[in-house]
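Lecture 7 notes: from sequence to structure.

We start with a single chain of 112 residues. Read the sequence below before looking at the structure.
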Amino acid sequence: MATRAELIRRTLDKLVVVGVGEVASADDIATVSGYVDDALTYLSARGVYFGGGVDDLADAGMNHLAEICRNFAAAAYSQAYSEDAVITAENHLRELSPGDGAGTETIKALYY
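Now the structure, written as tokens:
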């Protein structure tokens, strides 16, 4: 499972705030951390993604989560928000999640 710190790092990478091999500043980490909270709350409320604890994020969805977080934080780094990128990432997260797409789990039924 991926951690919150990895999600923050990947988001900063997508924002091109940190170069390869560089360490993010405490200010950048704090800034993106707030947007990560906002993004996870938003996704949960919409029934798109229900992560575990803050350090129990699905590896398979990490890139899509980081893309959504990047868009939430875009204005703070003078970058454009991309609604298309958010919608695409949300759709990928829905595909990775069990359930009916409305945030509820599908119930297995046996027919005889």
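Helices lie at 4-14, 26-45, 62-73, 83-96. Keep this in mind for problem set 3.
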